[in-house]
Amino acid sequence: MQVRSLFLLLVLILVAATAEAGKTKKEKAKKDGSKCEDWRWGPCVPSSKDCGLGYREGTCKDESKKLKCKIPCNWKKKFGADCKYKFESWGGCSAQTGLKTRSGILKKALYNAQCEETVYVTKPCSSKIKSKSKAKKGKGKD
């Protein structure tokens, strides 16, 4: 009988501790020392060079904050790291310019970033010719 009550007490303590830990995480997420709700965030500015770790400054009324951020080094600098686009497939190669083009439509603007609705990107045409059809295994000629 004592073993059961001891086990039950242990389970209750464990449940209470877990609930308290969950509550403090939620409180920490909400409680950042500010009651301001209308934050305006600037772009992510790398600490060195033009990509990598950096900081984003935010202001709300007379308060200001800095958040850590990161700009991937392979990201298209033209769009910024806060503008996310859905791109279509590459178009055909232009014989006049030697470039391929594709467009992207804005999917998400992070931190209220000022983003263009549609962007266009180009890249040089490939000089290699890729073969698109390969023989499939198990399929013989009839």
From TrEMBL:
Chief localization: secreted
Domain Pleiotrophin/Midkine C-terminal: residue ranges: 80-141
Subcellular location field: Secreted
Example of a GO cellular component annotation carried by this entry: extracellular region
Domain of life, source organism: Eukaryota
GO annotation terms (biological process): positive regulation of cell division
Record domain Pleiotrophin/Midkine N-terminal: where: 23-79
Alphabetical list of PROSITE patterns matching this protein: PTN_MK_2
Keyword Signal among record annotations: yes
PANTHER family associated with the record: MIDKINE, PLEIOTROPHIN FAMILY MEMBER
Family per similarity comment: Belongs to the pleiotrophin family.
Protein name (Swiss-Prot/TrEMBL): Midkine
Organism: Cardinalis cardinalis
Native organism taxonomy: Eukaryota, Metazoa, Chordata, Craniata, Vertebrata
